[in-house]
Amino acid sequence: MSIHDDGARSDDTGNRGALRQRAVSALQRSLARRRSIRLSNRRTTPARVARVEAAICSLPPLTREVFILHRFDELGYERIAHRLGISVEDVTSHIAAAILQLDRALRDSDMV
Length: 112
Prior knowledge:
This protein is mainly α. It contains five helices and two strands; from the N terminus they run E-E-H-H-H-H-H. The model is unreliable at 1-13 and 35-42 (pLDDT under 50).
């Protein structure tokens, strides 16, 4: 589910193409800001990108939406809270839960 600027919601569960495009755009913006940081080839392989996508898609729907709004759409916690009708503390909890789950998923897959 995604939230549009007009407040309307649309269900884009399973739409990996849209998720991939948002992730690529966010990554490009991030790299443009941090030109001095060079990522190793191991970290940017297509298999690793697929694992990240799968891990994001496996997040609970609200946690996934909060994470995407913050990390890909670059919204602040207060704006996310207002858009979704939840508290800033809830936003903080969802971001932390998402990061922990994604970290765990990537660590587990790197060990295989």
